[in-house]
Amino acid sequence: MSLEQNKAIVLKMYEAFDKQDIEQGRKFISVDIVGHGMDTTSRKGIDEFIQYAMSSFIIFPDGYHVFEEIIAEGNKVVTRGTFSGTHQGKLMGIPPTGKQVKFSFVHIDTLLDGKVTEHWGQADVFGMMQQLDFATVDRK
Length: 140
Hints:
Layout: H1 3-18, H2 22-26, E1 29-36, E2 42-44, H3 46-59, E3 64-73, E4 76-86, E5 100-112, E6 115-123, H4 125-131
Parallel strand pairs: 1-6
Antiparallel strand pairs: 1-2, 3-4, 4-5, 5-6
């Protein structure tokens, strides 16, 4: 696959997730995918990965990605941007606040034969928690 094809596959996967179209998203993911999030747990297999990925939309049902940068090299695609949504589900023990959040993320996706085989994701959780009034900075 070309670099441009790999970029298109990754963007279609995220577009499907933003539309909460799991069946469409499955078309772009290897059955053997390994997903790494901000915790130390790896999600192995397509079902576990999709369950983890879609959990964001339980917390932020209207959530969506905006991609500001997409870089491809070899079989990897790096996306950087923001995720926005309304906090309507329980998040790390925090009950829904109804507040709008917008925070940055970086994802690295590895592809093989037109499917995402590995995913790494990091996001500005501290910034998100500040927007929900659950984190502060002491500036003394």
